[in-house]
Amino acid sequence: MEYGHALETAFASQYVFLIKAQNFHWNVTGRAFYADHLLLERIYQEVEESIDTFAENLRKIGIFVPAGAARLAELSVIADAPAEPDTAATMLASLNKDALTLVDLMKELFTVAENNGDHGLSNFIADRQDAFAAHAWMLGSLRPAV
After folding, report:
1. Whether 102 contacts 14, CB under 8 Å
2. Which helix (H) or strand (E) segment is 100 a member of?
């Protein structure tokens, strides 16, 4: 994948993940509502805090930041949330899968940034990889025993 396109994809995917997590935060129901509601809020707020810095990192290397719902959806490897709210377990499992996808995407992007000599960006990407690994760990820990 071309470097600029890879960065746009990562940015868009993170942004769609944010929107999905916020959607689930608003719409989660069930016996563990309060705990799930707070966890989802913690996740979307952490991702939201990094969006502007991600955009600035793209601009520093001359890439225009993708914007608009259609453009973000076109670039993202993360699927949008369903129109109708689902069960809390399904929401959390979906977001866990997405967090793991973003861990892998950030791993690939780190290598690309390093190969392009963008060490500041690769440091930022490493931090995002770590953040998504933490989100996946927390979400994955909620799965019922099989």
Report:
1. yes
2. helix 88-115
Q: Tell the CATH superfamily of the 3-76+86-140 domain.
A: Ferritin, core subunit, four-helix bundle (1.20.1260.10)
DSSP state, residue 111: H
pLDDT of residue 1: 62
Distance in angstroms (rounded) separating the CA atoms of residues 94 and 139: 9
Cα distance between residue 47 and residue 42, in whole Å: 9
Tokens 């993202």 -> residue: 76
Nearest to 59 by CA among 135, 112, 115, 7: 7
pLDDT, tens only, 51-72: 999 999 999 999 999 999 999 9
- Listed by start position, the domains of the chain span 3-76+86-140
Of 48, 28, 46, 44, whose CA–CA distance to 36 is shortest? Answer: 28
All residues at 6 or more sequence positions from 142 whose CB lies less than 8 Å from its CB, including other chains? 36, 39, 92, 96
pTM of the entire predicted model: 0.94
